[in-house]
Amino acid sequence: MNIFRLAGDMTHLMSIVVLLLKIRATKSCRGISLRTQEMYLLVFLCRYLDLFYSFVSLYNTVMKLIFLASSAAIVYYMRYDRVVKQTYDRRQDTFRYLFLIVPCLILALLINHAFTLTEILWTFSIYLEAVAILPQLVLMQRTQNIDNLTGNYVLLLGTYRGLYILNWIFRFFTEPHYRQWLVWISGLLQTALYGDFFYYYFKCWKSNKKLTLPA
Amino acid sequence: AATAAAHDEL
Q1: Quick one: pLDDT at residue A129?
Q2: How many angstroms separate the first and last alpha carbons of chain A?
Q3: Do A177 and B5 touch (CB under 8 A)?
Q4: Where are the transmembrane segments (chain A) (predicted)?
Q5: Could you tell me if A13 lies within 8 Å of chain B, comparing CB atoms?
Q6: Residue A108 belongs to what domain range?
Q7: Number of domain units in chain A
Q8: ipTM above 0.85, yes or no
């Protein structure tokens, strides 16, 4: 494992910690898209099925369990916590997630490394992760009042994707057999989706203004 | 082996 991969994983972990802190400390999930969170949970459930049949390292196993548990906790809070669920922007968070899930599933059936159930679910999780942030980005454009924790959450997620690309570039040169074009293309698309957000985040930050995204 | 390589990431 290289430094970019580790830094990427830690940023990913921090993004989830920030989100859980926001929910638990402020008892509010305002500005957070439940649809994005549910898709992340689905991504982890499909991808980490390999917990049952393959072992990579203790680090991998522990991280997978943390990601599963924390994303399930976030979805639980937003859907079922008596106080938190009242702060959910139900009327604003209207992105149709089947428009993302169905195409990803079809694409995973058509383009994959091996036509087996676990491999197709794994591929599906790669495709879905690439676009799962979209409802969150749309929600942030609609609610012009983005709080700091939400902004930092998305910033950390975007940074995690950027670091993973550096990790792949590093692996491309250091591991001759590492040629994952399927993962690369999805990952590049995913990082590109954050481009706009990054632009406005730093623009507002430089001029000391509150973060807003133009509609 | 090509597929196994990517599965070591999270």
Answers
A1: 97
A2: 40
A3: yes
A4: 51-77, 97-115, 121-140, 152-170, 182-202
A5: no
A6: 3-206
A7: 1
A8: no
